Structure formats: structure tokens, C-alpha cells
Amino acid sequence: MISVDVRSKSYGDVPVLQDIQFDVEQGQTVAILGPSGIGKSTLLRLIAGIDPKFEGTVSRPKNMAIVFQEPTLLLWRSVFDNIQLIHPELSESAVREALSEVGLADKADLFPGQLSLGQQRRLSLARGFAGNPDLLIMDEPFVSLDEKTADEMLTLTERLISKTQPATIFVTHDTTEAARLATQILTLDGQPATLKIKETLK
Ligand code: ADP
Ligand code: MG
């Protein structure tokens, strides 16, 4: 289980987050919604442990994967290596299986720069899921994709989540996306925030 208790987070003298408390169980998906600049990415960094400078506590499992808004791929390594270097414990066939799950089976020897943006996003997703994470964190994973590609990514993500059953926390500004993937919604609006069940969104 993931337990988030953020009392306060500031950048210098500027307060960003206050009183945010929630728990996430395995298999649950929390969508964090809110306007630009409200602190969604900041909250994800606190949850992931990337930024330890805040008041409060977060307990998280060790096996965690993060999928960023822009694919953070190793451009000078092959598609295959982009998964295997992050997951050295995986066999060659497990890496190929992870690529095949996202429709990139025949791209293993290419470099990321030779993939379309949608394919790069799929590679990021494959890399995230390849280690069977207990916690999956995604920051606007479907932005700046055309509608069809975004829809394919959503379907793929739904499938990988239901297969892997991590606790998932993801940021979006799209209520349709949130309604489709999330079991719970956390809305940031500058006030203390707690989880609401998904039905309140619709
Ligand atoms: P969101 O993801 O909701 O758009 P962010 O978490 O990126 O919001 O940012 C929240 C606020 O904190 C913004 O005002 C942003 O400018 C500020 N901020 C984000 N990162 C930093 C940083 N490293 N240093 C100072 N201010 C920051
Ligand atoms: Mg952000």
C-alpha cells in the first residue's frame, strides 16, 4: 500500500502544496486532476521520492516505475537496450515480450530517434511495466498525441494495468482520460485534498 501524507511543500518562500493525504491499494488507479501550475508534477515527485524536501511522509514500495510526460529514452541505445539497461534482471525473451506487448516487436534494433512520438511513448510505457512495478507513477503520459494515438495509448495502458495490477497514480488534465482509467480522483485546487470516488466525476 502507498500512503501519502504531505503536510506542506514550498519552493523557497513560495508554498505549493498543503495537507494532502491519501492511500492507494494495489490494483487501484488514482487520477490527479487540476489546473496547470497547481502542483501536480510536484506532488508526483514527492510521492516518487525524487524530491525529498517537504514536510510530511510518504511510504512507497521499492519496485516503482515512473513514466514521464516526455519519453526519457536513451537516444544512443537501441530500443531493446532501452528496456534491458533499466531492467538488467530480464532475460532477452522477457525484453522481447515487453516490446511485443506494446507493438514494437519488430523495432528492437532501431534507435529511439527512428521511432514516431507515439512509438516512443509506447516504449516508455513498456519500460515502465517491464519490471512488474508495485507502484506506477505517470505524469500526463498522453499529452500532445493525436486523438487516435492517445486513444490507443489509453487502451494499452488499461490492458497493462489490469495485467500487472500495480497501484497507479497518474496526472492528467483530461477528465475523459481520468474517468476511463481511474478508480479514484484527487483534485488539486489549492485547498486540502483527499480522494474522492470516481462516480463524483461523471
Ligand atoms: P503542475 O504540474 O500542476 O502544472 P508543477 O508542480 O509543475 O505544477 O508546479 C507548481 C508550481 O511550482 C508552479 O508555480 C511552478 O512554477 C513551481 N515550481 C515547479 N518546480 C519548481 C522548482 N524546481 N523550483 C521552483 N518552483 C517550481
Ligand atoms: Mg505538470
From TrEMBL:
InterPro entries, alphabetized: AAA+_ATPase, ABC_transporter-like_ATP-bd, ABC_transporter-like_CS, ABC_transporter_ATP-bind, P-loop_NTPase
Domain annotation ABC transporter: ranges: 1-201
Keywords: ATP-binding, Nucleotide-binding, Transport
Entry's Gene Ontology molecular function annotations: ATP binding; ATP hydrolysis activity
Entry keyword annotation includes ATP-binding: yes
Short name of one Pfam family: ABC_tran
The organism's place on the tree of life at top rank: Bacteria
UniProt feature coiled coil, ranges: none
Family per similarity comment: Belongs to the ABC transporter superfamily.
Name by which UniProt lists this protein: NitT/TauT family transport system ATP-binding protein
Organism: Yoonia maritima
Source species taxonomy: Bacteria, Pseudomonadati, Pseudomonadota, Alphaproteobacteria, Rhodobacterales
